[in-house]
Write a structure and sequence with these properties.
Blueprint: E1 3-4, H1 5-11, H2 23-41, E2 52-60, E3 64-72, E4 78-86, H3 87-90, E5 97-103, H4 112-115, H5 125-131, E6 135-139, H6 158-163, H7 169-186, E7 190-200, H8 202-213, E8 217-223, H9 250-255, E9 258-259, H10 263-268, E10 275-280, H11 289-305, E11 312-317, H12 325-339
Parallel strand pairs: 5-6, 5-7, 7-8, 8-10, 10-11
Antiparallel strand pairs: 1-9, 2-3, 3-4, 4-6
């Protein structure tokens, strides 16, 4: 699983299926990838208990209700979130609806960026999905929105690591999102077999990280959130930094010129769950688009190997780090196809 970073940069990403004869052999390889991934994000506690949440306020929009809520996770933290419920669903007359975790990008407003009219242009995908009939849960992750640590600036995870020895920020985000799935499953108007996830940038990789670990996620849409170490001018974005430190241990590996995995292997954990991915060739955050494209092709090859052709869809365009309207419409159509049947 460990790779020389210089070899990745020169040769590109490895195949996901080379040497495999059948699906059983892939499952063995998948287990090895998953084991190494959990070794780095830290093992996630398995017993979460019953979900507990409360409504703090309620606002009516034209076709949905916005609930500001707070749910408690089993490590004692409280997660502020926005729950958008289409009025047709809230009335109980249209049966159970599909639901989506709308995971926010790197924005000080956190959940407000995707689930309120005050969110930035091209980021209000939570609102737009609620208008399409989805129940939407948009939580804050640590260091964003209402979860900025006291005395710290937004995006700063140093207080988290001071408080939580043995955890990683990635592991904590995933742990909290699994509780979010628990909450959605518990709602009487949500169809638990039709829950998806969507996100841009930070929210994008949270979506595929989550879907790779939790099969309750039945489809995902990722915007500018998938990248690889190969060709990345800033590979330590995943390690120890002065601001948001994802998995600090990776910095020690990089100091030795290696990485413990390549990110398309982590994305491959999602297969064969339907997976929509979008990247722009002018993305200044993830500029290594040639290597990312190779990785997307490798993931597509895996989906075909698994007999899941068509379940992985990846789009490219001459755009920056953005989620343009035409791409959002493609993402929503993809989710509709896999969650609203």
């Amino acid at each position: 699983m460990s790779y020389s970073l210089s070899e990745l940069n020169s040769r590109g990403v490895p195949s996901l299926v080379e040497g495999l004869q059948d699906v059983k052999e892939w499952m063995g390889r998948r287990e090895r990838i998953l084991s190494e991934w959990l070794n780095y994000v830290e093992e996630l506690p398995g017993n979460r208990g019953a979900v507990r949440w409360e409504t703090l306020s309620e606002e009516e929009e034209e076709c949905y209700v916005r609930l500001r809520i707070r749910y408690t996770v089993s490590d004692g933290d409280e997660v502020p979130a926005i729950l958008l419920v289409p009025k047709a669903v809230a009335g109980g007359g249209s049966g159970k609806a599909p639901a989506v975790l709308a995971l926010h990008p790197t924005a000080e407003a956190g959940k407000g960026d995707v689930a309120t009219p005050a969110g930035r242009d091209n980021r209000r995908y939570g609102v737009e999905l609620a208008e399409r009939g989805y129940v939407v849960l948009a939580p804050d992750v640590i260091a964003f929105g209402e979860r900025v640590f006291p005395g710290a600036q937004p995006y700063m995870t140093a207080p988290f690591y001071e408080q939580r020895s043995g955890w990683t920020a990635v592991g904590k985000m995933l742990f909290d999102h699994m509780h979010g799935l628990d909450l959605l499953e518990s709602l009487p108007f949500v169809d638990a077999d039709r829950i998806g996830a969507i996100g841009h940038s930070l929210g994008g990789y949270n979506a595929y990280f989550l879907a790779g670990l939790d099969r309750r996620v039945k489809a995902i849409a990722v915007s500018c959130g998938f990248t690889v170490f190969a060709g990345d001018p800033e590979p330590n974005r995943w390690g120890q930094r002065e601001w948001f430190s994802h998995i600090p241990r990776i910095s020690a590996d990089l100091a030795e010129g290696r990485v413990p995995f390549e990110h398309h292997e982590i994305a491959a954990l999602v297969a064969p769950t339907p997976f929509f991915n979008w990247n722009g060739t002018l993305d200044h955050i993830f500029p290594n688009w040639q290597r990312i494209s190779e990785a997307c092709a490798a993931i597509d090859e895996l989906y075909r190997f698994l007999g899941a052709e068509g379940r992985f869809s990846y789009l490219w365009g001459n755009s920056g780090h953005d989620f343009p309207a035409n791409i959002r419409e493609s993402a929503y159509t993809f989710l509709d196809r896999h969650l609203k049947l």
